[in-house]
Amino acid sequence: MANMKCASFLPSFLLPLLFVLAVATVAAGDVQFVFSGFTQSSLTLDGSAVVTQGGLLDMSNGTNNVKGHAIYPAPLLFRNSSTGKVKSFSATIIFCIVGTFPGVNANGMAFFIAPSKNFTDALPTQYLGILKQENNSNLLVIEIDTFQNLELKDINDNHIGIDINNVVPVQSNMAGFYEDSSGGAFKNLTLNNGMKLQLWVDYEEEETRINVTLAPLHVGKPLKPLLSATYNLSTVLTETAYIGFSSTAELMNARHYILGWSFGMNGQAPYIDISKLPKLPRVGSKPQSKLLAILLPIATAALIISIVTIVILMVRRRRRYREVREDWEGEFGPHRFSYKDLFDATEGFKNKNLVGAGGFGMVYKGVLKLSKKEIAVKRMSHDSTQGMKEFVTEIVSIGKLRHRNLVQLLGYCRRKGELILVYDYMSNGSLDKSIHCEQDKLTLNWAQRFHVIRGVATGLLYLHEKWEKVVIHRDIKASNVLLDDDMNGRLGDFGLARLYEHGTDPQSTHMVGTMGYLAPELVRTGKASPHTDVYAFGMFLLEVACGQKPIKQTTEEKQVFLVDWVLEHWTNGSLSKTVDTRLRGNYNTDEACLVLKLGLLCLHPFPSSRPSMRDVMQYLNGEIPLPKLRPTPLSLGMQGLMQDNGFNTSVMSYPQLMSSFSAMSDLSGGR
Ligand SMILES: Nc1ncnc2c1ncn2[C@@H]1O[C@H](COP(=O)(O)OP(=O)(O)OP(=O)(O)O)[C@@H](O)[C@H]1O
Ligand SMILES: *[C@@H]1O[C@H](CO)[C@@H](O)[C@H](O)[C@H]1NC(C)=O
Ligand SMILES: *[C@@H]1O[C@H](CO)[C@@H](O)[C@H](O)[C@H]1NC(C)=O
Ligand SMILES: *[C@@H]1O[C@H](CO)[C@@H](O)[C@H](O)[C@H]1NC(C)=O
Ligand SMILES: *[C@@H]1O[C@H](CO)[C@@H](O)[C@H](O)[C@H]1NC(C)=O
Ligand SMILES: *[C@@H]1O[C@H](CO)[C@@H](O)[C@H](O)[C@H]1NC(C)=O
Ligand SMILES: *[C@@H]1O[C@H](CO)[C@@H](O)[C@H](O)[C@H]1NC(C)=O
Ligand SMILES: *[C@@H]1O[C@H](CO)[C@@H](O)[C@H](O)[C@H]1NC(C)=O
Ligand SMILES: [Mg+2]
Q1: 651 pLDDT exceeds 60?
Q2: Span from the CA of 50 to the centroid of ligand 2 (angstroms)
Q3: Which of 65, 163, 250, 349 is most deeply packed, by most CB within 10 A?
Q4: CATH assignment of 296-425?
């Protein structure tokens, strides 16, 4: 927006008249003007200088080796007509230099007071398009120089200087300002970095002092000028002179923009309204790149972080749910569970879902997401893959068995060093918890116990005889008998001990863990058979009837074997005293005695003297009576141990002190 106090209201077709008027004005009094943008300024332009559509005075159009001038159209009267001295004056200029190559300085611009508008003779580059090589006169030039010409003693490539009739400055200083707010400290400014700067040129008639002050646009005029030179301009300037700007461009071109300009003769230059200044062109999309400079790293960082996070999550997910799967498992497809399903079902194998821990590993309760079915998940650590195929094959084929007295195996899953088996969940837990609970707390009455015993016997018979091949359970004990919703006894963990037989030494922790259920010949040879299952079943019978563990540690040294204890009572004719006291006598005496005696029979040290599960079923059902048993003291020796010792076939001799396993083993080995 142009705002010429003297002629701003004039339309452009009256321009020729303006010159006349302007000159007249000059003659009449002191000129004062202010331009916030140059749209209607009617400046005299030559060379590369143009006023853009937006009202910006563009001194250099981007071409190399050009010069340009923008001159206030009318000459100004600089001298007092009566005294003849150069009057005080002041000018304010708002400009901006944008270097084509930031950091590389070239060329410069200048504010001048000159006797004529004809600069055809003036030289570009260091002569700023105003001066000639010699014979310069009547010139005041304020150079805004971004080029260091050592020949001309330029102090650096970023300086302001006062030149009078010469390219060598009267005074110069590096661009900057004395900041009022910090007590007059000098602050550097870079001229050609695209920053809007304000320059003040003041001359005082009496003092003959020229002050030049520079500051960033939004900083007010500093108190201390950048340059302050005493020079009597009355000896320099002509009576009337032109004021304006010059710009030169050589190789490294820069853009010189003037946004606003005000001048006051014999007084202060008017204030330039900053809000009305024209906008700078988007040079090299600078503001955009500034935005990008901030956003791009953030966006890039965010992208990288998210990619890394996703990768980490995927890797963790893969590692977390990683499984081992081999070709031969194809046929077990329907029985194969994915680890993720089991992980989700047990809420990540949380401790709160842990229902128990045994010799093989941990057992967790879970709920399958899709079917909402309750499952028991058994995690077993297993290092070797040796025998795994046989084991899985066996487990899965056994898993195909369906029987109301077996805990249904639903499937399995394999991970590195780990085998996971999935069973039906048994809501009433394992039998050992019900039997070996606190004293006086009755959880299972006799009828329930007897029902469970028959159930377990049915289950074991099924394993031994009803399927196409003999399945040996290998680990019958109270903790492997589980109670379903209807309090049926169900055998669990069949065949599992098998996994640990391969390659592991017989003295494994598991063997020790189920001590008391091991038949003497199993301890000796390590070979499981239906007879060893029957032996363990016998121990289970005593355990259920007496409510006691097979081996009781009374003191540190002394162990009491349940068999011996029952046998002793039997010998003494007080068998009913061994029945669980928690039952408080509420039991069927016949059934209890049957169970106890059958237990002892199953616990016979000679495998062949033990009944088969089929026999056991018949005894339990009362279909056939128990053979008459006769307790025989061990002191009778070999004879006493022999069955059918020439006496009655239906009377069996029975050794005392069953716990002498080694002795038993030796004896049975002799058979
Ligand atoms: N299918 C199931 N349903 C409900 N609870 C179960 C199931 N399987 C096992 N449990 C519980 O988990 C506990 C631990 O079982 P686990 O089989 O690991 O050990 P154990 O039976 O004591 O010894 P072993 O390792 O010799 O079998 C059991 O005592 C039982 O309470
Ligand atoms: C710049 O100005 C010079 C001198 O007037 C002229 O020759 C040249 O064509 C101009 N260049 C542009 C790009 O306007
Ligand atoms: C010239 O100077 C004299 C004395 O300083 C002053 O009175 C007079 O007003 C000035 N004239 C102009 C035109 O400035
Ligand atoms: C400018 O000056 C040169 C010589 O100094 C002269 O040849 C030329 O005609 C002048 N131009 C104008 C427009 O006066
Ligand atoms: C400068 O002025 C001197 C004396 O007036 C003259 O001899 C010389 O030729 C001039 N030089 C130029 C370049 O005009
Ligand atoms: C200002 O510029 C001078 C000369 O280039 C330099 O020595 C000084 O360190 C600069 N000061 C600041 C604050 O940039
Ligand atoms: C120039 O600056 C000095 C301070 O350095 C100040 O005293 C003086 O009044 C100034 N003169 C003008 C014309 O601004
Ligand atoms: C400045 O120069 C003029 C003319 O030569 C003279 O009259 C005046 O006294 C000078 N002023 C100072 C302060 O020297
Ligand atoms: Mg178990």
Answers
A1: no
A2: 10
A3: 163
A4: 3.30.200.20
